[in-house]
């Protein structure tokens, strides 16, 4: 036993690991395991002590990357700030008061005109809750009205805490215009609230708008730094003291699906803000960034919406490990209209992370991780350069006026879409593992009144940054499929010709079936066929004109090539595809024989399915007219 206890393993180096890994890769280089991100950061396959980054020994120290509180959530728990949806003021009252009994620890809701229809409406909704729970509200264009009401709060105004913020610049990008005169009244509201509601934060830097437009983490961080600096400078010029301004600021981020990147994003945000405020001469206590986060709607889907529970859980976990102060978890059916069940699950996601995952009892679990620390440093450096680019181009308003910022975000969004079109990035239930029998409710419309008006002569038109979701293009294909089904009485179909025995065609049959399902196309297979006559019989029995050959490379060479020429002569109006990608020298042979396209793992799934559905629609319209 003593011998067993005293045994030790020989020390291994990174070079030893590299040699073993390349052995497993069967000749491929270790370089093939590196992963590029949308932030132009190359993720290494392995991080070791060599990658160790200089970081503070504890949270609350140095650059705040490890958090703003020395004991993290042990002493300052994050606030469960579920943003409550409602149709009527009475609903809001009931949900707010019920929510705080079930784990909600901040008052969060959309601000609507209905709250100001009578003097008593808002007071009746809130009751004495503001004296116990902080606010977590993006007031948008109604911030001024809400602050005015809270200034008249019947209780002790010193007890009103949290934030009721507004980010005019993000509103400009949503509405497509810049109205610089708005800043005058906005600054007056900030100054007045500073006197009447001393413990309420009112200056919001909201990067969620850019995240929903497709921005990467570097862009979000650079924009946050530039917008924060713009407001800081504006209010200093307006006569406010530096410490007063910083005590009123809060930053809002949406948390996406790249778990470690999102943790690093929040940590890097605090590094940037510490660096900026240090230049302005702020003391250490004032330099810590307060963060409100929400799980992303950019990553959520209409189809297979229960997967959204997993997505939101992953994003919430990243937000908490990243060190946020307020968190909203999006209900899984938020796109089609929240239900009581989904709101409960969303709220309880945070309760589970607190009570069962014990995230509030572990101080900075990511601290010291070679991977996370390296990623944080790389992200902060790239974001700082992006922030400098914005400043060199005149600051936030100027880069919005020129369209430079919008073009950069659009470029990243295009890259993201290309990856989901080719299924390099998977969206479960949408572009992979789609369920054709699933019925969904329509996406709810968000109708909001504009806050700014072009009647103001000082307003300047800019390019809008639209809220988008990655899954939308495929959802549009599914809608097209439904329209065709409603007109014909059957789901649009593609016939799959299964050459040979089951083991020869099944792998590619399953692949093509899943490929087609992403666009709402039903695969109808022939079963095993080996003769030309049985293939002809199958084609004649189908109403569709789209067919795909599925089999092994061997059978393609011995049987498929002979068949395809005859089939095109017999059925000149049919369109044929081939499952798999033949060798380069054979590809032209197949296309010359009449194969329109190859369906394989690198195919542009969206483009191919879109073409088929569009042709089906055109054919249907021509048939109807005839």
Topology:
Blueprint: H1 2-6, H2 14-24, E1 35-36, E2 42-43, E3 79-80, H3 89-99, H4 121-126, E4 135-138, H5 143-151, E5 162-166, H6 168-175, E6 177-178, H7 182-196, E7 200-206, H8 208-212, H9 217-237, H10 242-246, E8 249-255, H11 259-279, E9 291-295, H12 307-322, E10 326-328, H13 340-355, H14 370-392, H15 396-402, H16 404-421, E11 460-461, H17 472-488, E12 493-499, H18 502-517, E13 522-529, H19 532-541, E14 546-550, H20 553-570, E15 575-579, H21 584-593, E16 595-599, H22 605-625
Parallel strand pairs: 3-10, 4-5, 5-7, 7-8, 8-9, 9-10, 12-13, 12-14, 14-15, 15-16
Antiparallel strand pairs: 1-2, 6-11
Helix pairs in contact: 5-7, 9-11, 9-14, 11-12, 11-14, 12-13, 17-22
Give the CATH H-level superfamily of the largest domain.
Methylmalonyl-CoA mutase
Please identify the top-level CATH class of the largest domain: Alpha Beta
Describe the largest sheet. Answer: 7 strands, parallel
Q: C-alpha Rg, in Å?
A: 29 Å
Tell me what portion of residues adopts beta-strand conformation: 5-15%
Quaternary state reads single chain
Structural class: alpha/beta
The number of distinct structural domains comes to 2
